Amino acid sequence: MKFTKEGLLTIILILLNVMPANFRTKLIMSSVVIATSIFSLPDALKYVVSEELFSNIQLYIPLSKYGLGWLIPATLTFFGSYFYERKFKMIKFSS
Fold first, then answer.
1. Would you say 34 and 46 are in contact if contact means Cβ atoms under 8 Å apart?
2. Closest CA to 33 of 48, 54, 18, 11
3. pLDDT tens profile 41-93
4. CB contact at 8 A, 68 and 1
5. In the 8-state DSSP scheme, what is residue 19?
6. What is the pTM of this model?
7. For residues 81 and 72, what is the distance between their CA atoms, to the nearest angstrom?
8. Using CA atoms, how far apart are residues 94 and 27, in angstroms rounded to an integer?
């Protein structure tokens, strides 16, 4: 099963929108969408440019051969930005 870049972003935005409000901040939404876009570029560009050009890049991205190279980076970005924002808010309110 292969996803298009637009389909990936749609999936990510739908998943983020069904989460509770504290998971839908501007920082979390924008960073996850950016990470998804970056890691789905090799998958999308292989239909425009020679597939051989991106085959070496896809060897280093986990799950890329299944069209899911964006999944791990998007998940890590989600948790990273959530914990960053949570810590930042705690520091901001404590002073």
1. no
2. 11
3. 877 777 777 777 777 777 788 887 777 888 899 999 999 999 998 887 754 54
4. no
5. S
6. 0.73
7. 14
8. 21
